[in-house]
């Protein structure tokens, strides 16, 4: 049970135990005895501490160190009903279950007051039996709930430890079609390297785009994977690079080849386009 | 090709850490190709070795319902919990009682929970339990209205560091009605001071 | 009370592992009470020790843009990646291009991206980038319609294991493209006829 905000001394139950007050039981309460004064707000909070009529009953029983199996129904009923009446006097909204329980208690009490038959028949059950069964059943789950609350709880007592999957798994490991930034970076390297060869004479004849397309396809026809840079013959200089680059763009566009790269700065590979489900 | 013990151990370690959920033995086993396959026993023995290797670290490798996970040792919680400025909301008694009834009595309908608790179970509570993925609907009771049958999930067990439902704290024994009636016969109405 | 070096190291270790995001030095520092406080330098030296201790493990303690995180070493990827039966969400070419343009040209409007790519940028792509928290709106361009200005996030850097934008291939590459395409335009007509 959660901690009540009401000091023990002002609990209405203590007041109810007063014999004088017992006489008002059953009558309509218009005025509370002075020693019974409880701030209305506090009473509402107090009621919030109970999970229902069974919980309130358990409280009344436990408070007097009584065994559930042997509830003094009359006494408990008197306390319970006094409690309920207090609530009503104070205009506190009571769940219907509380009133239902009051009726049930009153019924049990009246049945117990009936004279017992001289020879008790087997079928006749103690009127309290059902209530006792319910109280016991409720109490064990109330205890179970407390036990569960004590278990180490994730996010409160237990914190899971995780690590990021390997970087490769975060990046597109599948082929992708020309991430421009990556492609350009690779191009820049190629340009830099070919710049050193600039002084060579460019043989125009060898630089047909058509021919370059064919050459690349031929080089990749058996499914080899070739490093991107290797497609650029350094001897052809800048123009050769441009023609080869255009050929690559064209082949990419036609989905005849694909480029692969595991991460930034990793080598880019070129291979025949493999059909993969998008 | 048979992988070295050390490599396999590293793979298990990495996989358990990288997995967003606890990792079961079967899930660990599928990481290896046919020619690298290991028996359950071998995997378990390697996991044991890993547990020993982490003895002096801030973490422990534990088994919960859905498998193995690493978690920060409880003694460091006071500091670790400061990473979250708002404390996790306390579980209300109403929620805990409802959860306890579902856990111990599953599968169970909402009406059955209400019968035990003696009050209406609020929709918010049921919703909160679903939101945490602690409970699921496992079927319907074949009575008028076909009410949903509720049961707890693996995630519920994981969240409370339990391997199985049998690890739940035992439910208090109930004294049977026979003995109740016997005891009551000894108690006369007069003794109760009615 | 001054905490022992070992305890502080354990707390850092546990915190980095428990945090869902990379953990910065400032965030680590706040885990300690005033009387337990450590200097940045002390923290960094303990992190270095931790990095050494993990040298032989399957994980490494790495620093990314928003802080420290543990990461499974790349060499175990062939096995670990099998945990995700569907390959990690595949990034489409259109998405990567859009992302690259935002990364290089930020802050940039959608219309500007479209101008560069020459095609309409689909709403799905922008949404996917937002969903991954790789981009954010950092303001609005003061032109009719006040279009949103998009920029990349720290998470984008983390996801690509970059410490800062400066680690991206330099912008010079883009200028190169411009000169290349100019050159190509000059060459094409002539060459195509060959």
Structure in a nutshell:
By secondary structure, chain A is mainly alpha-helical. Helices cover 49% and strands 5% of the residues of chain A.
- Based on secondary structure, the structural category of chain B is alpha+beta
Element-by-element helix/strand order of chain B: HHHEEHHHHEEHH
**Which class do the helix and strand fractions of chain A yield?**
mainly alpha
Number of helices of chain B: 9
Q: What's the number of domains of chain B? A: 2
The percentage helix of chain A is 40-55%
Task: State the name of the first-level CATH class of the largest domain in chain B.
Answer: Mainly Alpha
Give the radius of gyration of chain A.
44 Å
Number of strands of chain A: 4
CATH superfamily membership of the largest domain in chain B: Winged helix-like DNA-binding domain superfamily/Winged helix DNA-binding domain
Topology, element by element:
The complex is a heterotrimer, with one copy of chain A (278 residues) and two copies of chain B (194 residues).
Chain A: H1 12-16, H2 19-22, H3 40-48, H4 53-63, H5 73-89, H6 96-113, H7 129-150, E1 159-161, H8 167-170, H9 180-195, H10 209-220, E2 226-227, H11 237-253, E3 257-260, E4 269-272
Antiparallel strand pairs in A: 2-4, 3-4
Helix pairs in contact in A: 4-7, 5-6, 9-11, 10-11
Chain B: H1 5-18, H2 25-29, H3 40-53, E1 59-64, E2 67-72, H4 77-80, H5 93-105, H6 110-117, H7 123-131, E3 135-140, E4 148-152, H8 154-159, H9 177-186
Antiparallel strand pairs in B: 1-2, 3-4
